[in-house]
Amino acid sequence: MDENRRLSLQRSNELHAYGQDFLSRKKNIPLGLNEPYMGQYELMKAKILKELGGSGADWDDWQWQMRNRIDSHELLDRLITLSEEDRREIDDVSRKYRWAITPYYLALIDPENSADAIRGMSVPCTQELAESGLADPSGEENTNPAGIITRRYPDRLILNVTNSCSTFCRHCQRRRNIGQTDTDAHSAKIDESLEYIRQNTELRDILITGGDPLVLSDDFIEDIVARVRVIPHVEIIRIGSRTPVTMPQRITPELVGRLKKYHPVFMNTQFNHPREITPQSKRACELLRDNGFMLGNQMVLLGGINDDEYVVRLLNQELLKIGVRPYYMFYAKNVVGTLHFRTSVRRGVEILEYLQGNTSGMAIPHYIVSAPDGLGKIPLGPEYIVGEDDEYITLRTWEDREVKIKK
């Protein structure tokens, strides 16, 4: 054996050993595309349909899903196992914060597992009543120059068109807006916002969000998208929606057909755990992808849910397979009632450091910390420059080996 081949095989064996660690770990991470989770989903689906008196056709109707959101502990108790303390906590929290779960998303919960990741993101718990944190840590109320706009950057802004969602995530950054009833933007506020965009010709990128804009009717959504698209200087339209995750029935051929007329339209969604990648969410994302929508994922780093490098790696690799590019990993904001989800800032850096080299670059998101007072996103990552002199810069590799690069 020549020396080059010997060294190549030695290196191959090292890389093989790195890969085996992940392969052994991922066997224990729930993925919604695998059995037994698909079987569990079907059992839960049947149980929920029986309780609600629905049919298979009802289940596939997003409007039925919205009308039948579970929002009382009495109904939830008949579908998953709750302790007396759980019931009391749900009632205590619901007096302050609204909650609701679509039948579909509830069917993803392991009914006997109180530590289930989907349950943690959707069922209220007593930690939400803690008073620490801020109602509006990103200062959105102070970055609202007109109508329903949030503006933090020179060339882009947000339109907040509704406070409603299919499922009210317990880690929501805008829980101050949820209230107790669904409220959509008034036409006068929309008109004022669009006029602001027309008058500010540096604006080229418009994000339509909420709440979740895709809980609105096809007519409402298309009207807003169409009116934004005709503004000459707008180049990019983005829609922020978690419905591909929590109510994939919403992604219908009719909706897709109406919106694809206004391309380029981007869709940013929020998968936080591999359990959320199911045949149904996969089908929704592929329908969008196959009709020209560019899809990105904005994961929120949540303690006890996904603050694990192997969970994030599996999530992002599976997202790529269904046509969704891991885009952001957000450090959870300092929102009152959500601080039990916060990790250290450093934990996100550690996860990125693990991903680098252990998975493809497309599976590595930007790690983002949002600055207070509406000052925008701050990207963080590992530091790879470890030294410098007049002639060389010293860098470290993903394996923590140092190399010198001539300037």
Structure description:
This protein is 37% helix and 15% strand. Helix 10 packs parallel to helix 12. A hairpin with a 5-residue loop joins strand 1 and strand 2. It folds into two domains: 77 residues, no CATH class; 239 residues, Aldolase class I (TIM Barrel, Alpha-Beta Barrel), CATH 3.20.20. The strands form two sheets. Strands 1-2-3-4-5-6-7-8-9 form a nine-stranded mixed sheet. It has a three-stranded antiparallel sheet with strand order 10-11-12, with no helix packed on it. The longest helix has 24 residues. The protein has 15 helices and twelve strands. The chain is an alpha/beta fold and 407 residues long.
**Helicity range of the residues?**
25-40%
How far is the first residue's CA from the last residue's CA?
37 Å
Number of self-contained structural domains: 2
Molecular shape: globular
Average residue-wise pLDDT: 96
> What name goes with the CATH superfamily of the largest domain?
Aldolase class I
Reading side by side through the largest sheet, how are the strands ordered? Answer: 1-2-3-4-5-6-7-8-9
Can you identify the CATH class of the largest domain?
Alpha Beta
Which spans of ≥5 residues are poorly predicted at pLDDT below 50? none
Give the H and E element order: HHHHHHHHEEHEHEHHEHEHEHEEEEE
Number of H/I helices = 15
Structural class: alpha/beta
CATH topology of the largest domain: TIM Barrel
Beta-strand residue fraction: 5-15%
Radius of gyration: 23 Å
Largest sheet: 9 strands, mixed
> What would CATH call the architecture of the largest domain?
Alpha-Beta Barrel
Number of strands: 12
